[in-house]
Structure formats: C-alpha cells, structure tokens
Amino acid sequence: MTALKNDRFLRALLKQPVDVTPVWMMRQAGRYLPEYRASRSKAGDFMSLCMNPELACEVTLQPLERYPLDAAILFSDILTVPDAMGLGLYFETGEGPRFKKVVSNMADIEALPIPDPEKDLGYVMNAVRTIRRELNGRVPLIGFSGSPWTLATYMVEGGSSKDFRKSKAMLYENPQAMHALLDKLAQSVTSYLNGQILAGAQAVQIFDSWGGSLSAAAYQEFSLAYMQKIVDGLIREHDGRRVPVILFTKGGGLWLESMAATGAEALGLDWTCDIGVARSRVGDKVALQGNMDPSVLFAKPEAIRAEVGRILASFGQGEGHVFNLGHGVTPEVDPAHAGAFIESVHELSAKYHG
C-alpha cells in the first residue's frame, strides 16, 4: 500500500508526537457542501449514493479538495448493517430512516442473519477500496459502524425515536431478547469493521449515538459491554501499522473511565464534556477526540477561532488530541466557516506540541 504523506491523525490517536493537532469533522462529507448536494441529486437518493462506490468515493474526497483535513471518513450510513440483515431500509422525506420490518420478539431476532461483509455489504467494501486508491496516501481513511445498542434502537423502533419507548421496554421487560439482539449485532459489527480494515480503512470509529439515553447501569450492560466485544474482536494490526479504534458515545461523559478501560485507543467526546477535565480523568490511557459544539460554526470566524483556542488550551500541552466537533456538522453551516475552523485548529495548536 502507498505510504502516508500525512499521518498526524494516526499518530495523535496513538499519543505520538505531532507538529499540530490533527482535525477532521464528523459528517464532513454532507449537505452543507453544494458539491455534495450535486452528487446526491446525480445519484437520485441517499442510499443510491451510498451503494455506488464511485459516487461514495467522490463525496468522501470532496471536503479534502476544499480543506486541509487530516483524515477522510468513508461515506456511508450506520444503518447499512440492519439493512443487510433483511430489514429493508428506506428514507422518508423529512422523516429520516425507516425499516420495512421491525424486530419485536425473540423469533424475529433468531431469524436475523449475520451479514457477510463482502457478499452482503460488498458495496461498502468496494467504496473503501476505491477511496483508498484515490486518496493515494494523502491522509488516512476512517471506517465506521454504529454501536450495537444504537443499531438495535432503530431495528426495534422501526426508525428514529425521541424516547426509545419500544427498545427500553424490551431491555427491561425481556432483557434476554435484547441481549440476543445485541450479541448478534456485536458479531455483525465486528465482521463488518474487520472487512473495512482488510479493504483499507486505517482507523475505525464506533458511533454510539444513543448510548447516552441509557441509565448508568443499563449503559454498562447493554451498550458498553457489546462495544467491548467488538474492540476485543477487531483486527488491530494491518499493513504493518496499528489500526486505532475510537469509541464515541454521545452523552457518554459520565462513563469515560469505563470506556477508557475497553482497550480502544481513543474516546470521542461531545461538547457537554470539558476536554481538560476528561483528560485528567482518563490520564494517559487513551487519546481524546473532540469536542467543539457544532453550533459554533454558525458564529463569525473570529468567534470560531476563539472557541478553538479555548478547547486547545483546556486540553493543554502534549499529545493525544484529535480535534473534532462534538457531533456531526449540520446542513445549514456556511462552508467558509468550516474552513475557518480547520485553519484555526492548525494555526493555534502548534504551540502545544514539540
């Protein structure tokens, strides 16, 4: 494989020295970019865009043409796995993702297959291979998946949910069924991420978007325990390099110590956490990724720069920080403001290194 021209993202995840703090943005390929909207209309709809490796590669690379980002992230969706399990994913305008079939009992769970990454999710693996080829070593490529708990909520609710009524009812009323579902999802996600690593992903992130909706006890038992299974089952060396794993639980600031004990290289933080406090809590165990409030990007460039400076100062001197937003960039953001954000990170962070 081609040597990396810019590996500061991977170095930071492993707490190795870097010249400046690396930066990327969750949802950096997305609706805030006019070129993304053009590609999406060419594809026809969101899933057609995901399922076309050439177009998925095109939109993955678009933000890198605009900004000096330190990583590319595969363009895909967390719900590809439940779709490959036969639930029939579709998108309603203004409604978000929906499934034709829902999972509501043990019989439904027993009927679910564990997808084969190359056979059932081959379009994702082909996208990874295409992106790696086109990146040609410019920056590392991040692969990703949803966490078992997050995927389970969509499968049980049939789509997005504000209160997770059905998922939590199953969790408390029929924990055996929920554990069976989560176990199957942990196996599926492990093989899916390993497939991405073999296809060329150089780091992977597990998005636990809804772990923060759980009580402390339920989080440990129904979310973190299954992310632990995934971390334990992942390929950690490939192409002569360590493949770092990032765990990101939105709303998970209360549980950083137990997340850091999983063996993941890094934790993603949302904006409700002070990164300096988080660093003092986890010590040298893990790198930290984050954690500017995405809404700061609606402010003027000088306000964005001030907030970047504040977060860098809070993390302080030394290695192990990947700068990111605390969640995905939103569609209404001015692309010039995203540019000001990325430029500020590189400019203001040099004094914290070396």
Query: Which oligomeric form is depicted?
Result: single chain
Q: End-to-end distance, in Å?
A: 29 Å
Query: Would you tell me the structural class of the helices and strands?
Result: alpha/beta
Question: How much strand content do the residues show?
Answer: 5-15%
SSE pattern, N- to C-terminal: HHHHEHEEHHEHHHEHEEEHEHEHEH
Q: What are the low-pLDDT stretches, counting only 5+ consecutive residues below 50? A: none
**CATH C-level:** Alpha Beta
Q: How many DSSP E strands?
A: 11
Shape field: globular
Count of all domains: 1
GO molecular function: uroporphyrinogen decarboxylase activity
Binding site for substrate: 27-31, 77, 154, 209, 327
Subunit structure: Homodimer.
Function: Catalyzes the decarboxylation of four acetate groups of uroporphyrinogen-III to yield coproporphyrinogen-III.
How is the secondary structure organized here?
Layout: H1 8-13, H2 34-43, H3 46-50, H4 53-66, E1 72-73, H5 80-87, E2 89-92, E3 96-99, H6 106-110, H7 122-135, E4 141-146, H8 148-157, H9 165-173, H10 175-199, E5 203-208, H11 216-233, E6 237-238, E7 241-242, E8 245-249, H12 256-260, E9 266-268, H13 275-282, E10 287-292, H14 301-315, E11 321-325, H15 335-349
Parallel strand pairs: 1-4, 4-5, 5-8, 8-9, 9-10, 10-11
Antiparallel strand pairs: 2-3, 6-7
